[in-house]
Design brief:
By secondary structure, the chain is mainly alpha-helical. The protein is built from 3 helices and 2 strands, in the order αβαβα. The chain has one domain. The longest helix is centred in the N-terminal third of the chain and has 15 residues. 4% of the residues are buried.
Length: 67
């Protein structure tokens, strides 16, 4: 099972238990389609690597506010 399939499986299993769960996708590939279309893939938001704590906290806060 590749990494993407593992992430999808775990995320979908968790969402079956709790529909309110949110996930933020992260990648070192800035042009990765999943970063550009994160919501279409079911993620609350995305962040490109490398990132610092302030940027990560900002993404968490924005994702929380959008819900």
């Amino acid at each position: 099972m590749n990494t993407r399939a593992c992430v999808d499986f775990c995320y979908n299993e968790r969402r079956q238990i709790d529909r309110s769960v949110k996930a933020i996708v992260s990648s070192g590939y800035v042009d990765a389609p999943i970063l550009k279309e994160s919501r279409r893939h079911g993620f609350a938001d995305s962040i490109a690597k490398p990132y610092d704590l302030a940027a990560l906290l900002n993404v968490f806060a924005e994702s929380w506010e959008k819900s």
